[in-house]
Amino acid sequence: MNRQDFQSLALERLEDAQTLLHAGRYSGAYYIAGYAVECALKACIARQTNQDDFPPKNAREYYVHDIEDLLGHANLETEHKAQSASDPAFEASWTVVKDWNEEARYQPATQQAAEGIISAISDPQHGVLPWLRRYW
User: Fold this and answer.
1) DSSP string, 38-79
2) Other C-beta atoms within 10 Å of 2: how many?
3) Number of structural domains the chain divides into
4) Which end of the chain has a smaller Cβ tally under 10 Å, C or N?
5) Gap between the terminal Cα atoms of the chain
6) Coil, strand or helix: which one is 87?
7) Domain range spanning residue 11?
8) 19 Cβ contact partners less than 8 Å away, ≥ 6 residues apart
C-alpha cells in the first residue's frame, strides 16, 4: 500500500463510520472510525518513505493499531504538543481518539461514544483528521 491508498482509506473509513452511525450501528461506527485515524497516521508515515510506500511487513513496529504509537512513528509528537497547547478543543478531540484500539470490535459502544469519536475525528476546526491531513 502507498500513501495515497492510506489517504483514501482514511476518508472512506470515516464515511463508513458516519453511515453506520446514521443506521444506528453504534459499535460498528465507533470501531470503524478509529481506522480512519490509523490510516491517516499510516499515510503520514508513508510520506516519509522513498516512494511514499508503507514500510514492508517486516517493519513490525509500523503494523500496530495503537494511535499514540503511530503518532510517534509518524514523527508528529512535537507538532501534536504544539497543536494541543494552542488549541484545547483539539486536545479534547485527541483525548477521545487516542484511546481507540482494535479491541473495540469486541466491545459494545453507545450512541454517545460513536458520535463522540466521529466528531473528534472529523470536526473541521478542531478534529484529528483535518490536523493529520496537514502532514500526510
Assistant:
1) HHHHHHHHHHTSTTSBPPPTT-GGGS---HHHHHHHTT-HHH
2) 14
3) 1
4) N
5) 14
6) coil
7) 3-132
8) none
